Amino acid sequence: MSSPVPTYGFFTLIPNFFRSHLPLLVVVLVSAIIGLLMVVVFGYTSDQKAIHVAKDQLKAYLLAVRLFQDQIPVVLASYGRILRGTGRYLKLAFKPLLYVIVPLVFLVVQLDRYLGFVPLETGQAFLLKVHTTNPESLDEVLLQLPPELVTTAPAVHAPSDNEVTWRMAAEKDGNYEINVAVAGQVFSKRAVVSPDMTRVSPVRLRGRFWERMLVSGEPALPDNAPIQSIEVSYPARSIHFAWLDWNWIWLFFVLSLVAGFFFKSVLGIEI
Predict the structure, then answer these.
(1) Which residue segments constitute the domains of the chain, with CATH numbers given?
(2) Among the residues of 7-71, which ranges form H helices?
(3) Out of 42, 49, 85, 147, which could bridge 96 as a Cys pair, Cβ 3.0 to 4.6 Å?
(4) Is the pLDDT of residue 3 over 80?
(5) How far apart are CA 21 and CA 137, in angstroms?
(6) Long-range CB contacts for residues 72-79, cutoff 8 Å, separation at least 24
(7) How does strand 203-205 pair with strand 163-170?
(8) For residue 9, pLDDT beyond 60
């Protein structure tokens, strides 16, 4: 009797498919939603009639340049009207953009925690860099690792940069707290080892408020800390789309613009 042939149902393939394509699916979905919301917000917060008039005037001035290109005074006057008309249009569009820009920047910063970098893999070598406030502190830096993390090379000191670097790897998946002891003080840095799309923070910083808001997802180091930063070298994420490898932010803006123009036409909103 022959042995039965194993069968693989369609639903058993879904988790792996979504895991490998989840970043792209998230970017496409968020881009479509943001494109729609931007158009709707622009429509409700802008003077649609005035924008329509301003755009028609600009078209008329451009047409005059083409029709009367052999009449220099008319062309020069049309260029002046084009500049004034462009300024009028930008003034009308500026207020609606203010309603969009602030929440959009906040959204991009938050999504970058998930889409900007790839979590580490089990067995993958990565670097931990500690930047001290002065070169004298370099020899005092001690590393305290959980049992699942092991160093794979001796520490490298760079006194000119006030920096010490370790190479290490994880034996299994997990969220790990790496402790760095300097001058009797202990500071932690999180390292994420996972095959999934999860939240990561590449660096923990002291001070530098705006940089910390943009690139760090961890609490600030104390102001009196003898170190300025602790950094884990996560690989940057690239998303393959339309035969190209994209940084997710560029892909998001391109797709949201495409979605915006599509919904603009569907909803009949002047932009």
Answers:
(1) 22-116+243-267 (no CATH), 126-232 (2.60.40)
(2) 14-45, 48-67
(3) 42
(4) no
(5) 44
(6) none
(7) unpaired
(8) no
Using N-to-C axis directions, what is the helix angle for 48-67 and 72-115, rounded to 10°? Answer: 130
Of residues 200, 197, 264, 271, the one with CA closest to residue 234: 200
Long-range Cβ pairs for the range 56-59 (8 Å, 24+)? 57/81, 57/85, 58/82, 58/85, 58/86, 58/89
At residue 244, the 3 state secondary structure works out as strand
Token digits for 190? 């999180």
Give the separation between CA 138 and CA 161, rounded to whole angstroms. 10
pTM for this structure? 0.80
Q: What is the pLDDT of residues 233-250, one digit of tens each?
A: 999 999 999 899 999 999
Place of tokens 């959204």: 107
Q: How confident is the model at residue 108 (pLDDT cuts 50, 70, 90)?
A: very high
Each residue's pLDDT tens digit, 37-56:
988 988 888 778 888 888 88
Q: Which is higher by pLDDT, 101 or 2?
A: 101
